[in-house]
Amino acid sequence: MAFALSPSLSLARNRITCFSNNRHVTPAKVPATSATAVEKVMKRLRSVVPIVIASVQISALLPVLDYVAPSHAGAVLYSPDTKVPRTGEVALRRAIPANASMKTIQDTLEDISYLLRIPQRKPYGTMEGNVKKALKIAVDEKDSILASIPAELKERGSVVHTSLIEGKGGLQTLLQSIKEQDADKVSVSLASSLDTVAELELLQAPGLSFLLPEQYVQQYPRLSGRGTVEFTIEKGDGSTFSPVGGEQKITATIQIVIDGYSAPLTAGNFAKLVMDGAYNGAKLNCINQAIISDNGVDKNNGYSVPLEIMPSGQFEPLYKTTLSVQDGELPVLPLSVYGAVAMAHNEASEEYSSPYQFFFYLYDKRSAGLGGISFDEGQFSVFGYTTNGRDILPQIKTGDIIRSAKLVEGQDRLVLPKES
């Protein structure tokens, strides 16, 4: 089994692509890649990466904040003002297709995250105004917020809504922390309030908010919501992992949340493979800024999923189309997050993802554009993020093995195509 990184080697871009000897998608022939060829590619990458870092090292001096959509369709890659999510939790929260009132509450609270980063005297007055605005919306729009929740979940929604307003980790507690002008308390209370906002938003979004193309519905599995996959990773050389704050262990656990709201076909195909045990025993390989699974020549389904990317501000994904980040297009699920999970490209066409091969992206702002955006942003089907075990990712080496992969949450949201 041969696979390789297939880069369009330039200072601005590389590609993560799966290669096998199977011709299961298109008739285009791709020659088998030898170990010598892989070594040449990796040597060339090593010679390129320092130049990239040197050309963009000024980005480390510029602020990269949590998120706000670009104000205009400028050259995002080269704009120091670009702001994107920097954790999987923030990206996943913003991807929930929730009620407009809840999104306004979320945006208002996330502004406080930005204000807390100001190194001089904190603008507590502005923060207080933000929380009061969020409280007013939560109270005044209660009926419309709860009306967006399915009948069977309304009781739970009412409890969460009350917790958002009056609970120990809710808006009233956040408001009191701001009045005390204790930045640490504000940070903790804000995180708790945003978690509650996300919980309420998820209750509002039990399924997809758009219709998939009929030909895809008939052909591919789909995930109509969120799922959680747990990997057990084992060292290939018999050494151990060292979790932060824990004891050394032979195996380590990584959890990822996969998002069917923005990538239903990609997440659905991945979830189905996990349930089928396709990744149990798969080997991992470390390449430039990524940990990539083997290409599963003997485990794929004989087809490739179309490239699937949801652009920010849009209501449904684009298929077989990349985004032009230079023109201001950014995805709802950005690649430029440490621990992002995406599918590799199909070996014959970048309009399709590999049917099997995925990778963890090890984002490094030193190798990104001036706006903190990866040079490969908008080019891959990102379908989830590492939420537990991010400290394990840098410890993974080539030859380590996925001992097991399990879909621990979300089986009820996986919809399989009807057999013809």
Folded structure, characterized:
The chain has 10 helices and 12 strands. The protein is an alpha+beta fold. The protein has an 8-stranded antiparallel barrel. It has a two-stranded antiparallel sheet with strand order 1-12. A hairpin with a 2-residue loop joins strand 4 and strand 5 (about 290-295). The relative contact order is 0.18. Mean pLDDT is about 80; it is low at about 1-15 and about 20-75.
Overview in brief:
It comes from Psophocarpus tetragonolobus. The chain has 420 residues and is of the alpha+beta class.
Give the topology, please:
Elements (H helix, E strand, L loop, with lengths): L34 H22 L31 H7 L5 H17 L7 H17 L1 H6 L6 H13 L4 H9 L3 H22 L9 H4 L4 E2 L2 E9 L16 E9 L4 H12 L6 E6 L2 E4 L14 E2 L8 E2 L20 E6 L7 E9 L20 E7 L12 E9 L4 E2 L5
Antiparallel strand pairs: 1-12, 2-3, 2-11, 3-10, 4-5, 4-11, 5-9, 6-7, 8-9, 8-10
Number of helical regions:
10
Task: Estimate the global geometry from the Cα principal axes.
Answer: globular
Spans of 5+ residues with little confidence (pLDDT < 50)?
A: 1-14, 18-75
| Helix content class | 25-40%
- DSSP E strands, number: 12
The mean pLDDT is: 82
Main β-sheet, spatial strand arrangement: 2-3-10-8-9-5-4-11
Element-by-element helix/strand order:
HHHHHHHHHEEEHEEEEEEEEE
Please give the alpha-carbon distance between the first and last residues.
32 Å
Structural class: alpha+beta
> How would you characterize the largest beta sheet?
8 strands, antiparallel, barrel
Radius of gyration: 22 Å
Strand content: 15-25%
Organism: Psophocarpus tetragonolobus
GO molecular function: peptidyl-prolyl cis-trans isomerase activity
InterPro entries: Cyclophilin-like_dom_sf, Cyclophilin-type_PPIase_dom, CYP37-like, CYP38_PsbQ-like, PsbQ-like_dom_sf
Keywords: Thylakoid
